[in-house]
Amino acid sequence: MRVILVDSDPGAMEALAEHIRRAEPQAEIAAFTSREELARWMEEDGGNARRDRPRLRVQTFGNFEVFYDGKPVHFRRRRTKELFAYLIDRRGAGSTMGQLISVLWEGRPDTDSVRSQLRSLITDLRTTFRDLEENSIIIKQRDLIAVDPDRVDCDYYRFLAGDQGAVNAFRGEYMTNYSWGETTLGALQQKK
Fold first, then answer.
1. The pTM is what?
2. CA-to-CA distance for 138 and 135, rounded, in angstroms?
């Protein structure tokens, strides 16, 4: 659900946006303080950016959640979902097996057993997206794995791009289900 708010009173818009978020947590809210600002936004993207978004939507503000065509994506393992969350956090930068092990198995040594578990998670992740016919979301090359940020609609990415709806949606929480997300949270709070 998309909601566009136009009002010269930011306080009133914020109160209404909060009411809408409580009633419809998945709502995308774009707020503008004038019709001119809305018109510029419409002219700049013609409304197309919203319609042409990828089918995979990632929510990083609050708990990490993934939706495909509006339905939650089921990950077979909890750590598979966390692996995907970490790749989203990296915004397309490749991660090595060693980096992933240090994040997903914090404090555990890098052993053959842990590497085997990680390879299983990567296979599981790729299978999840293959089942959704979205094979190109995960980029795997030798010892590097990454996400293609252009293949996902992500609130975090839109926030960084200056999307007003994403900026308004940020409530000081980022991937609250993963402690490693606190570093990014600090950077987001400084940007707001």
1. 0.73
2. 7
